[in-house]
Amino acid sequence: MEKELRIVGFLCNWCSYGGADTAGVGRFIQPTDLRIIRMPCSGRLDPLFVLKTLTGGADGVLVSGCHPRDCHYAEGNYYARRRLEVLKRFLPVIGIDPGRFEYTWVSASEGQRWQHVVTEFTAQVHALGPIQRIGKQAQARACSFATSGLFARVED
Fold this sequence. Notes:
It contains five helices and four strands. By secondary structure, the protein is α/β, with parallel strands linked by helices. The protein has one domain (7-147): Rossmann fold (3-Layer(aba) Sandwich). Helix 2 (47-55) packs antiparallel against helix 5. Keywords: Iron, Iron-sulfur, Metal-binding, Oxidoreductase.
């Protein structure tokens, strides 16, 4: 049996969490590595949550929200997409493979799509193997560098 890795999922309450629930109710076979954190909206996700999760020992992070134009809060997923795209480009700068991070859109009725997304992402993280743990000083530098304004004006 393959060793479970630590994969964290930040899921929108209104769509992706419902999609994960639909997959569970439908008894779709899914990897068990993913631990879900339910958020009000993907637009609420600060990229630093992802960065701290990865530098804190998670092997992968998946963010999932409502499809564009279907956000319960109108524009939250647009803000999330902009911030998360910047974050994905930033990860190699601090030595984290961008394959350890993914964001996607899944609605509450898309249980099969959720199963596919989580299975593919888990396989991708397993192919990369466990993350190389970084020291506390490197973790602090990465977070201070990221908070220095990198994500501040992404909404504009």
